[in-house]
Amino acid sequence: MKDVVGSPGTWSGLALRVSQCLCAAASFATMFFAAGFGHYTAFGIMLISMEIQCIWSFSRAMVDIDSLRNNIDLHNLDHVCMVMILDWVSSSLFDNEAYIGIKVEFLFRDALL
User: The pTM is what?
Assistant: First the structure.
């Protein structure tokens, strides 16, 4: 398999996973420390989603570090399919939770007007 930018087991893939983990952790911290955050269920679900995203990205970054240190090729079909499917599931989960959060925000804003 050809080395594609951002693919598993490359330096660019590691950089992408670390930045993904940092963004998820920053979102998690921002939501967790927001005033009155615990009163809205949709935002609580988003918090769980960000926690899962952070754990997934961190674990993938550790696999990339291990493959770079030990010169392991991660470009076999089984590994790439597993990463692709789990990335798809985690991104779908986050997108759905973000949509729910936006709908709740519009609902509250319209109720106050």
Answer: 0.70
